[in-house]
Amino acid sequence: MKVAICEAKSNYTIEAGDLIIAKHIKGHILNYLVIKERDELMPKYRLLNVDSSFIMATFSSGRTSDVVTYVTKSLKCEILSVIPASKLQLGLK
User: Fold this and answer.
1) Staple partner for 20: which of 25, 32, 35, 90, CB 3.0–4.6 Å?
2) Which of 12, 17, 2 lies closest to 78, judged by CA?
3) Predicted confidence band at 2 (pLDDT cuts at 50, 70, 90)?
4) 70: helix, coil or strand?
């Protein structure tokens, strides 16, 4: 499932396996990987900080838009770019 980011503010979409490149309000560039933990009626998403291998959050929601909300509101970051999972060669399953 793909959803538009930030009420169609841009043409980015988010799905499991995508890499989010974001800029914190203090100027740091951060990289987050969206991971889908399980395939059930209510999947659980995790947001992995690639720079530190730290799980930032777990989302008990079927909506990947919760990832966008967490990055923009809770982490106080602006999403600069989203690299689709199809362009990454990470071997995630």
Assistant:
1) 32
2) 12
3) very low
4) helix
